[in-house]
Design a protein that fits this description.
The protein is an alpha/beta fold. 25% of the residues lie in helices and 34% in strands. It is built from two helices and eight strands; from the N terminus they run αββββββββα. An eight-stranded mixed sheet has the order 7-1-4-3-2-6-5-8, with no helix packed on it. The mean pLDDT is 87.
Length: 147
Amino acid sequence: MMSSRKTELSVGFFLLVGLACLAYLSLSLGHVRIWGDSDYLVQASFSNVSGLKAKATVTMAGVQIGRIERIQLKDGSALVSMRINKDVRLEEDAIASVKSTGIIGDKYIAITRGASDVYIPKGGKIMDTQPPVDLEELIGKYVFGKV
């Protein structure tokens, strides 16, 4: 009787530990924040974001500093909402550019530091943006001799 009870308690304990691990993995893989914010929201408007998707990376100097949360159309422009790590501060004259990994690779946003002493607040907006280079247009200009 006593050994049966120990077995049941140990199985129950390992079941709880397994469920806790599963919950942790689900929350961390789903990027769900429970214990405070580890990032802040910044927005940028682009004339074109061709191929950029939510959850794509945001980099500065080649290092990932955040992720794209959402892309929506607002007043004829693409409004991109980005979650930036809280330990990274963006100057108000920073430049956000849509780049791609390789010629036809995934799109991401690269932020170039500014020189200002004033930083973008939480929920602020990056004013200087650059859309992606349109390879089809460049190839068309080259083929038809308009370069």
